[in-house]
Specification:
Blueprint: E1 10-17, E2 21-28, E3 33-39, H1 47-64, E4 72-76, E5 89-93, E6 98-99, H2 112-132, E7 136-137, E8 142-145, E9 151-154, H3 159-162, H4 166-173, H5 186-204, H6 207-222, H7 224-227, E10 237-238, E11 250-251
Antiparallel strand pairs: 1-2, 2-3, 3-5, 4-5, 6-11, 7-10, 8-9
Helix pairs in contact: 4-5, 5-6
Length: 253
C-alpha cells in the first residue's frame, strides 16, 4: 500500500461516475493529468477489499503484460491511519482515448468503415482476453500485493456480485473464511457461491419466499458436479475481467 501527497500543485477537475466508483481528474501545474478513483459509499460495500484487489491487478498487468492498463501511482485504504481522505482511493494514470461507442440499433445499410472499426476492436479485445488467459494460478480468488511487492491470490472478491446490493455484501461478510477462498478447485468455488446465494436470499426476502429461493439454489448446487470439466477442476485458473463492457473500454480514433 502506498500513499501520495497532493497539495496546491494539484486541482480536481472533471469527474465521472459509474456503478461503483466516482473518478476525478487531478490536474497538476505542469498540465499532467492523473485520475483519482474513489468507491461510492452507497453502492460499494466492500470498498477496501475491492480497492486493494483492483490496484494489485493493475500493477500485476502493468508489470507482466502488454495490455494497456493505467499505471497505479498510489492507493490507500480507508482504515489506514495515514489516510486523510476518509475513503479508500486509487491514484492512477489517465489513459488517452474515449469510451467505446454504443450502436443503438442495427441497420442493413452499414458503413464499411464502421464495420472495419468494429472488426479491429473485436480483434484487439480478443488479444486482450487471450493474454489475460495466459496468466495461470493454482487457486481461484482475487489478486493481492504483499508489502514486499509480491502478488498472491487472496479471498475471492467480485464487486458485481458481493459489493452490491448491500444485503449481498452483508451476507458475504458473514461467510466462514472457508467460503471466501482462495479456492483450490472449481467445486469449492461453486459450493461457496451456493452458500453466499443462500445467505443473501434469506437476508433479502421474507421467511416464506426465502425458503423457496434457498430450495432453488440448493437444487442448482446439487447439479454443479454435472457442469465441471474434469481436467480443469483443479486448475490452472486464469485471469478474467468480470465487467468488460463498453463503459470499461477506451478506444482511440
Amino acid at each position: 500500500m502506498t500513499t501520495v501527497q497532493l497539495d496546491e500543485l494539484c486541482a480536481a477537475a472533471a469527474r465521472c461516475r459509474g456503478g461503483f466508483n466516482v473518478v476525478y481528474e487531478l490536474i497538476f501545474s505542469d498540465d499532467v493529468v492523473w485520475m483519482a478513483r474513489i468507491p461510492l459509499p452507497y453502492n460499494c460495500f466492500q470498498a477496501e477489499e475491492v480497492t486493494a484487489s483492483y490496484a494489485a491487478t493493475l500493477r500485476y498487468l502493468k508489470r507482466n503484460s502488454a495490455i494497456p492498463v493505467p499505471a497505479v501511482f498510489a492507493h490507500c485504504l480507508q482504515s489506514n491511519p495515514d489516510n486523510k481522505v476518509n475513503a479508500s482511493y486509487i491514484i492512477m494514470e489517465k489513459l488517452p482515448g474515449c469510451p467505446l461507442p454504443v450502436i443503438e440499433r442495427l441497420s442493413l445499410d452499414v458503413d464499411p468503415n464502421d464495420l472495419a472499426l468494429a472488426k479491429k476492436v473485436h480483434e484487439q479485445l480478443t488479444d486482450v482476453l487471450l493474454e489475460l488467459a495466459s496468466f495461470k494460478f493454482s487457486q481461484i480468488g482475487s489478486l493481492r500485493e504483499d508489502p514486499e511487492g509480491n502478488f498472491v491470490v487472496g479471498p475471492y472478491i467480485d464487486p458485481n456480485s458481493t459489493a452490491y446490493p448491500q444485503h449481498r455484501a452483508t451476507a458475504y461478510k458473514s461467510l466462514d473464511c472457508l467460503h471466501k477462498g482462495p479456492f483450490s478447485s472449481v467445486q469449492e468455488w461453486y459450493s461457496a457461491m451456493a452458500q453466499l446465494n443462500r445467505k443473501a436470499s434469506l437476508d433479502d426476502l421474507d421467511e416464506e419466499d426465502g425458503d423457496e429461493v434457498v430450495a432453488d439454489y440448493e437444487i442448482l448446487a446439487s447439479f454443479t458436479h454435472k457442469v465441471l470439466v474434469k481436467e480443469y477442476e483443479n486448475g490452472p485458473f486464469v485471469l478474467n475481467h468480470n465487467d468488460l463492457t463498453v463503459q470499461n473500454i477506451l478506444v482511440r480514433t
